[in-house]
Specification:
Layout (H helix, E strand, L loop, with lengths): L2 H11 L12 H6 L8 E5 L6 H7 L3 E6 L2 H10 L7 E3 L2 E6 L2 E5 L7 H4 L4 E5 L10 H12 L5 E7 L14 H7 L3 E9 L2 H6 L3 E8 L8
Parallel strand pairs: 1-2, 1-6, 2-5, 6-7
Antiparallel strand pairs: 3-4, 4-5, 7-9, 8-9
The structure holds S-adenosylmethionine.
């Protein structure tokens, strides 16, 4: 198991999950329509986010992928759902009420493990990964979701040299290297404990990526 995995598992073990919002993300609520009609939405690096329940409430089936067993267990327990674990490829699947969480390493998930995905939603996922992992992450995400699936991606942008991630700064130029079409839907100032402490200007930006062809067919 890599160092990065151990970093996240220890955060779950110690309850250091400040990233967990405990309610649907407001940018998702404002723009969920961009994910298309009810389908099957992939939520990479899902934690136990309420966004999965929110997407389900819109009629989507939801597939989260998350390293920490505690996150998967807590999600279903907190929603009063029974979800027994069973093996799914290299991961462990728990599924109830239209929501599946595949517990294990995102990079070990295969397309046949997640099923036919219509859209994806990345909050605190690409920005949780160090620069050297992000190209691989994006390529794997596109492999799992399919080339035509649209995705909503929430990024932070700030002077990386002034603050250590995560969350890391991921700019629009970088996203354009990974995804065929990138449209910025929101751009606002934000702050977190780290950026506040260091007096850093931090922006939060929502993008719609992929899913639309450059030329009409
Ligand atoms: C910053 S948290 C965000 C969780 C969730 N998206 C949210 O908004 O609350 C990042 C999550 O990614 C998980 N994670 C990190 N690396 C992973 C990997 N390689 N495979 C699966 N999950 C991973 C961590 O355990 C953690 O729960």
């Amino acid at each position: 198991m890599g160092m990065d995995a151990e970093f996240w598992l220890s955060r779950w073990r110690e309850g250091r999950i400040g990233f967990h919002e405990g309610r649907p993300n407001d940018l998702l609520v404002s723009h969920a329509r961009a994910l298309g009609p009810p389908g099957r939405v992939l939520v990479p690096l899902s934690g136990k986010t309420e966004d999965m329940a929110y997407l389900r409430s819109l009629g989507h089936e939801v597939v989260g992928i998350e390293l920490a067993e505690a996150a998967a267990e807590e999600f279903f327990r907190e929603h009063g759902l029974e979800a027994a674990p069973s093996p799914r490829g290299a991961l462990v699947e728990r599924s109830a009420g239209g929501i599946t969480i595949l517990q294990g390493d995102f990079f070990d998930a295969r397309p046949e493990d997640v099923g036919a995905i219509t859209a994806f939603y990345d909050r605190a996922a690409i920005v949780a990964l160090p620069p050297e992992l992000r190209p691989r992450y994006a390529a794997h995400l596109r492999e799992l979701a399919g080339e035509d699936a649209p995705g909503l991606v929430i990024c932070f942008e700030y002077p990386q040299e002034r603050m250590a991630g995560p969350p890391f700064s991921v700019g629009e130029d970088e996203l354009r290297r990974y995804f065929p079409a990138v449209e910025r839907l929101e751009d606002r100032r934000t702050e977190g404990p780290q950026s506040r402490a260091s007096g850093i200007d931090m922006r939060e930006r929502l993008y719609l990526v992929g899913g639309h062809r450059a030329e009409p067919i």
